[in-house]
């Protein structure tokens, strides 16, 4: 059980690669796994490891995340001491000056970090999906008295893997650890999952220095540039982590949880994944349904065929309708006699009768939030 | 609902012995129902949806399930600064300790609890009925008509009147007589065990009733007749809609099956939500070998077999080759490979072994019990 760590979930990072789903929400609030949002995984991993003092660095598009997290009750984070804190950016006095990067937000909220009595900081993002036990890397971080511990995942046969292209990798040169980009030209490497343990003093130093220098906008850049100043270690996680940074990797990761052994790991291994409670009844299968290899949340009424798909809460699928290889978000209604393949339906989409919607396994077709297909 | 005007007292201490092993470790209100609920969720959610924010729950028999389920009432938004939900078990006093002896006695023993809240009206509820009802409307009728006591009633088929407490009324729904399980009924209006009392009157009735040595201290058998004797204004409030007392294995099974009947009038999917404690499990998974037809499936289930006309509660596992029909499978139960389950209730934590056959076509309900407490 960890008791000396402040968790910071940084949502101020770039997220231009998954535009289709992040137009209306930060990537942290993108639905994943039938009833969750991306941030639920990191948040629950922290809770399950004993970290209950957590700040979420926000940059923009707060609404859907606020709606999802509220006072943090679902994660048991509505506490008198500690608990959850949303770290908003200050509103600029001159609204034409839109600040770039996450460092300005951290600057605006530095007091929150200063005031905590916690000795260490766990910095994470929300777009690496896994069921992670933070107690082991934490233990190593303490025992080795490291300034920074970078959490990694060892990859074999990583050459030309499109889903890992452009992600951060950790390299060791002349005894010094550095972080670079995966160009797809190596078979084996250590992927940085952009989660770090810091001594609080080190974290503060990096942030304040970077802000004072003023030549950097993003915290990650500031960390990478200063690695040589500190005692840095890595910790290789044995959990399977799914990096989600593009529509394709989102779609593939979603399909991977249809593997029962994977979903058993992801949803339960080191503790449950918590999410906002919706109080929907169980899902109803009416009449001659045909459901194969599908993950369905509560509150759905299914009358048709569902194959290789993930169905979120409160979805209606009509009679004689076939939904294959698709991801259907909350409260979507698909009418009778439709044929759907390789689609991602964002929330509240309504599809009428006799519609045919097709994407491709390599390029799923995204139907935007609230669209009505008559 | 005016704040504090009416509080609810839910009677949840009954054993419900006709539910057999289902209530060996759990009081009847805590028995699982409808895939994700416990029976008491209906009365509690009705309170929450009706705007009643002060609820006392009277427990006695096997309270562990109820206590852990209700906690501080978060799922029903009843974790309030003032009032909220409170569990009221029997207690010791300077005159010694005693168990609740009858439904009226349970309220009598908690008169202090009600007095502190100082309500004008008290709503008495049973924790073991399945229905959706707006108590605020019932209270409005009670106030508008200036009644002393309002009883919610439902029309039952004439041939079943002998199973209920029957209320005989005048054309304006004034109650003039109460008959407990009459052989030859004059009316088919059955009491639903839902009462609104003016608190001052109820308090008087409870104190009087406590003095009577021959009283069973029961609302239906003693308090209502006593009020009629005092010529109080008792009003029948007619309820239309789904209502079921799940007192026996048969009615419990039927009420579950009603949920998968397309013509069922109890709509779990409507705006009047039924709240329950969330178990935070993953969505359910239906494998390629799995098949579901007319089934209610809750989160956490893994279905690799064939399931028809059944209810699968939280975290049920149906292995490959298994066939489940007309059955209610309670949380965490496991149906082994190639097992056959017909018209059965499989209790929480129970396991039907591979290749085993459970239940038959005789029409009787088979109960597969489990020694442990099951999922809490």
Entry summary:
Chain A is α/β, with parallel strands linked by helices and 374 residues long. In chain A, 23% of the residues lie in helices and 29% in strands. In chain B, helix 2 (64-70) links the parallel strand 4 (54-58) and strand 5 (84-88).
Into which percentage range does the β-strand content of chain B fall?
Answer: 25-35%
CATH superfamily of the largest domain in chain A: Spore Coat Polysaccharide Biosynthesis Protein SpsA, Chain A
Task: Quote the distance from N terminus to C terminus of chain B.
Answer: 33 Å
- Helix/strand class of chain A: alpha/beta
> Beta-strand level of the residues of chain A, as a percent range?
25-35%
Task: List its salient traits.
heterodimer, A: 374 residues, alpha/beta, Spore Coat Polysaccharide Biosynthesis Protein SpsA, Chain A, 2 domains, 9-stranded mixed β-sheet, 8-stranded parallel β-sheet, 23% helix, B: 376 residues, 28 strands
Task: Write up this protein.
The complex is a heterodimer of chains A (about 375) and B (about 375). With about 375 residues, chain A is of the alpha/beta class. Chain A contains ten helices and 27 strands. In chain A, β9 and β10 form a beta hairpin. In chain A, about 50% of the residues are buried. The mean pLDDT of chain A is about 95. In chain B, about 50% of the residues are buried. The interface between A and B is large, with 40 and 37 residues. β15 of chain A pairs antiparallel with β16 of chain B.
